[in-house]
Amino acid sequence: EAGVVQSPRYKIIEKKQPVAFWCNPISGHNTLYWYRQNLGQGPELLIRYENEEAVDDSQLPKDRFSAERLKGVDSTLKIQPAELGDSAVYLCASSLDSTRRTGELFFGEGSRLTVL
Amino acid sequence: GNSVTQMEGPVTLSEEAFLTINCTYTATGYPSLFWYVQYPGEGLQLLLKATKADDKGSNKGFEATYRKETTSFHLEKGSVQVSDSAVYFCALSASNSGYALNFGKGTSLLVTP
To answer: Among A26, A58, A95, A102, which would you mutate to test the B interface (most chain B Cβ atoms within 10 Å of its Cβ)?
Structure first.
């Protein structure tokens, strides 16, 4: 069974440029998460989807970040314009609703963003 | 709010040494506790979990016991191997935060032959 797939793995851009990250969750997983992991820190939740609905986006910086999950499967996270402080690894994870409460999330390998 | 504090790394051990990585938490109610592991070049994966006080989670020779009296969930392994070299994250989830995982900063472990 394929795991959570993210792309690109690495992205280097100049500040003020836009960037987008894509995530394909495990088939059948209705819950999808985007986390941001700064260097030397643990992952921090940006947004959680239940199917196509964003049920928790309280930590998403809405002035420059946006996300969508059309049809409740793949998801895209966008930053426009990027700032130096956005350099981080962006992690996508998915889970079944039944396992969400037990904390069993399946993570992708992450997209490492460097903003110059 | 909920938070997790784990010991700073990096931790360097020789093969077959005993491992302890300390983790304490702050949360209201009765959180579930987890250890996630990130091997080099791979994504985070669940190592073990405990959902109520005095539960012991175990997997791959690792153990952690949910201690409500000390709000701790320390990770232990009796004899580490080179293949255990990774970054270990303690985490919690609780109903008051919609069961979102709240991670510690991670502890890097390097096991040398």
So the answer is: A102
